[in-house]
Specification:
heterodimer; A: mainly alpha; Formate dehydrogenase/DMSO reductase fold; 15 helices; B: Alpha-Beta Plaits; four-stranded mixed β-sheet; two-stranded antiparallel ribbon; 8 helices; 27% helix
C-alpha cells in the first residue's frame, strides 16, 4: 500500500519537500546540540525541562485521542466513524513517534537511551512510559495497517485484530495516565502535585486530538475526493465540546484549591501565570491567550447553531488546539519549575536552535502523518471509484 | 520459498525477543549477593549524616567549605548562571527554609546565608524516579551517582525538592580552574551532586567541606552511633531539617 504515497499532485510533493526541508534544518540544529550539549537550549538547573518535554506532554494527549473514534466505532458500532477511524489511528502513530523523538532529543546522553531497557527500573515512571508509549505505537500501526489493507481488498479484517483493538482502548488511557504520573508524584513541586492531573490530561487529550481531526477532515474534504462526511465531523465536534468543557472545568478546580487554600507552594505558580512573579512575566501573555482562546472555543462549540457552521467550527477547533497546546505544554511544564523549590524565580525562554529542533520534530510527525493519510485516502478514493 | 522466509522471520523475531529478555533476567538475578568491600582504613558508618551549626557564623560567610568541595571534585565554574553546576552553596535563610522566615525573626537569621547541599535523604525521591538506577542509595545512606549510567533525562532534578542536582549543560572540562587528578571530571549531559565525599571516606578522610570548615560549623558522623558527635549535638540542641513535611527524611540537620 505504501506505494500510494509515492504518487501525488504537485501540491503534495511541494508539501513533502517543505517538511523534508524543516526536518533537515532541525536535524542540523540537533547535530549542533549533540556536540555542544543541552546548554544550547534555554534550560537551566532551575527550569530543567522546557519546550521539548512540553511538546512531548501535549502530544501524548493527541495520540491518546484516537480512542475517541475507536471506542464509539468498535464498542458501540457507531457506523458514522467507520470510514474515519483510520484517521485517528494514523494520527496516533504520528503523534507517538513525535513523543518518543522529543524524549530522545531532550536526553543529555541520547546514546545511552537503551540503559532504560538494560537496567529496567519499575519504580521509575519513565520506565513505564517507555513501555506504554512503544506499545501504543505498535498497536496503532498494526491495527491501522491491517484494517486498511483488508478494506482495500474488500474482505473483513482477520479475527485476531478485534482483541488487539479492544486492548488498544484501555492502552490509550494508560499512556496519558502514566505521563501524568511523571508529574503528579513529585514531592517538591506543588504545581504538579494534584490528584486530578491524570483526569485533566485525559480531558484535554480528548479535546485537542479530536479538534485536530476535525481540521484534518475539513482539509481532506477540500483537497481530495474522499469526504469524511458532515455527520462524522459533527459527531467529533460534540466530543470536542464536552471534553473542552471538562478540561476548562478541571483547570478551574485547580484554581479554587490553590487560591482558596492560599498555600504558597500551590498559589505562587498560578500567580506567575496570571500576573507574573517578582517582575518576571514571560508566560503571562501566553496564559491570557489560553484563556481567551478557550472562551472563544467554548462559545462557538456550546451553541449548536455556531457549532454546525463548519467555518466557525474550524475556528473553534483551531482555538481548542492552540489553547490546550499552551495550557498543557509550556503552561504546565515550565510553570512547575517557577518558582523553584527554593522559592527563587528564574525564568525560561527557548533558544533558536531549540525552536528549530522542535519544528523539525513536528515536521517529521507531519511527514509520517502525510504519508499515512495519503495511503488511507488513496484507498478511500479507490473505493469511491469502484 | 515463501515458507522458508516465514520461518526465518519467526526465528529472527524469537531471537530478538530472547536478546531483549536477557538484561531483565540478569537484573532480577543480580539483586542479591552483590557486596562491596571497602579498604580497611575506610571510614564506615551505619548511617552517615551531617549537622550544620547555625549558631556559629563563618567570618567570610562560608566560603572555605564551598571552595574545598568544588576544588576537590572538579566542579566547573561557569560565567553564565544558566549553565551553573554546584554541589554545596549558600542560600539566604528564607530560601533554604521557604516559609520559615517571618518579619520578626531573630536578627542573626535575617538574610543569613545558610550552607545547603544534598540531604542524602533516607527516602530519596531522586532515586525513586531515576529510570536507570544511575542514582541509588547505599547501605550507609549515601545517595550516589553513577556518571556512566546517567542518560541525562533530568527526572531526578524535577524530583529533588532541594534543588541539589545539576546537569552538565555543556562540556565542563574547560571551566575547571585547577583539575584534581584524583577525582574524575564529568562529560556533558550527565547529572551530578554532592556524594558526602564517598571517595574520601573510602580513604579514611572526612568530607572535604567538613575538613575545610575552620569554625567547625559542619559536623559529620554516624547518626546511628549514640556516641557520635552528630548524635550528641542533636541530643543537646534544637535542630530543624529542610522541608521535613515532604517525607524524604533529610539527613542534614541544622541547629538553630
Amino acid at each position: 500500500m505504501l506505494e500510494k504515497a509515492l504518487t501525488g499532485s504537485r501540491t503534495y510533493y511541494g508539501w513533502v519537500t517543505f517538511l523534508l526541508a524543516m526536518i533537515g534544518i532541525g536535524f542540523l540544529c540537533y547535530l549542533l546540540q549533540l556536540s555542544y550539549g543541552l546548554g544550547i537550549t534555554g534550560m537551566s538547573r532551575d527550569v530543567s525541562w522546557g519546550l521539548y518535554i512540553a511538546q512531548f506532554t501535549f502530544l501524548v494527549g493527541v495520540a491518546a485521542s484516537a480512542v475517541m473514534l475507536v471506542l464509539p466505532y468498535y464498542l458501540h458500532h457507531f457506523k458514522t466513524f467507520a470510514r474515519i477511524t483510520i484517521l485517528g489511528e494514523f494520527l496516533a502513530v504520528a503523534a507517538v513517534t513525535m513523543c518518543l523523538t522529543f524524549i530522545i532529543v531532550d536526553l543529555g546522553q541520547p546514546a545511552r537511551a537503551f540503559n532504560v531497557i538494560l537496567y529496567p527500573t519499575p519504580n521509575s515512571i519513565l520506565f513505564w512510559d517507555m513501555i506504554v508509549l512503544n506499545g501504543y505505537l505498535l498497536l496503532n500501526i498494526v491495527i491501522g495497517w491491517t484494517v486498511l489493507g483488508t478494506e482495500r481488498k474488500g474482505v473483513s479484517p482477520p479475527g485476531w485484530v478485534k482483541p488487539v483493538i479492544y486492548i488498544s482502548i484501555p492502552w490509550a488511557i494508560s499512556i496519558h495516565t502514566v505521563t501524568a504520573f511523571i508529574y503528579a508524584g513529585l514531592p517538591g513541586r506543588g504545581f504538579w502535585l494534584t490528584a486530578i492531573m491524570a483526569p485533566r490530561f485525559l480531558a484535554s487529550a480528548f479535546a485537542s486530538g479530536p479538534a485536530l481531526l476535525v481540521l484534518f477532515a475539513l482539509i481532506i474534504r477540500r483537497f481530495t475526493r474522499f469526504d469524511p462526511g458532515r455527520e462524522a465531523i459533527q459527531a467529533i465536534a460534540k466530543i470536542v465540546t464536552y471534553a473542552m468543557i471538562v478540561s476548562v472545568f478541571f483547570v478551574l478546580m485547580e484554581l479554587f484549591t490553590a487560591y482558596y487554600s492560599q498555600i504558597p507552594e500551590h498559589m505562587h505558580h498560578f500567580n506567575y501565570l496570571f500576573v507574573g512573579l517578582e517582575g518576571h512575566k514571560t508566560l503571562v501573555p501566553w496564559w491570557w491567550a489560553f484563556m481567551v482562546l478557550a472562551v472563544v472555543a467554548l462559545y462557538i462549540l456550546i451553541n449548536p447553531k455556531t457549532r454546525s457552521n463548519e467555518k466557525l467550527l474550524a475556528v473553534a477547533c483551531a482555538s481548542v488546539f492552540i489553547s490546550l497546546w499552551i495550557e498543557k505544554g509550556l503552561g504546565l511544564v515550565v510553570t512547575g519549575f517557577i518558582p523553584n523549590p527554593l522559592d527563587h524565580v528564574r525564568e525560561y525562554s527557548p533558544t533558536w536552535p531549540e525552536v528549530f529542533i522542535t519544528l523539525g520534530v513536528w515536521a517529521m510527525g507531519f511527514l509520517i502523518l502525510t504519508v499515512l493519510y495519503k495511503v488511507a485516502i488513496s484507498v478511500r478514493e479507490e473505493e469511491i471509484a469502484a | 520459498m515463501d515458507g522458508s522466509r516465514r520461518s526465518f522471520l519467526k526465528i529472527a523475531g524469537l531471537s530478538i525477543l530472547g536478546a531483549g529478555a536477557r538484561p531483565i533476567s540478569d537484573a532480577l538475578a543480580a539483586e542479591e549477593g552483590r557486596k562491596v568491600s571497602l579498604p580497611s582504613r575506610a571510614l564506615t558508618a551505619k548511617r552517615w549524616a551531617m549537622v550544620v551549626d547555625l549558631r556559629k557564623k563563618c567570618p567570610d560567610d562560608c566560603r572555605d567549605c564551598i571552595e574545598a568541595c568544588h576544588g576537590v571534585h572538579n566542579v566547573p565554574a561557569f560565567d553564565n548562571p544558566k549553565d551553573e553546576v554546584k554541589w554545596i552553596w549558600n542560600e539566604p535563610f528564607r530560601h533554604a527554609f521557604p516559609g520559615q522566615e517571618h518579619e520578626y525573626i531573630e536578627e542573626r537569621y535575617k538574610g543569613r546565608p545558610v550552607v545547603v547541599l544534598c540531604n542524602h535523604c533516607d527516602n530519596p525521591p531522586c532515586v525513586r524516579v531515576c529510570p536507570t538506577k544511575a542514582t541509588f542509595r547505599r547501605e550507609d545512606g549515601i545517595v550516589m551517582m553513577d556518571y556512566h549510567r546517567c542518560i541525562g533525562c533530568r527526572f531526578c532534578m524535577a524530583g529533588c525538592p532541594f534543588g541539589a542536582r545539576s546537569l552538565n549543560w555543556r562540556d565542563p572540562r574547560p571551566f575547571i580552574k585547577t583539575q584534581n587528578k584524583e577525582y574524575p571530571t564529568r562529560m556533558r549531559g550527565v547529572v551530578e551532586k554532592c556524594t558526602f565525599c564517598e571517595e574520601r571516606l573510602a580513604k579514611g578522610l572526612r568530607p572535604a567541606c567538613v575538613e575545610a570548615c575552620k569554625e567547625r560549623i559542619l559536623v559529620f558522623g554516624d547518626i546511628e552511633d549514640p556516641r557520635s558527635e552528630v548524635r550528641e549535638l542533636l541530643h543537646k540542641h534544637h535542630s530543624i531539617r529542610r522541608k521535613p513535611q515532604l517525607g524524604t527524611m533529610p539527613q542534614v540537620y541544622y541547629i538553630v
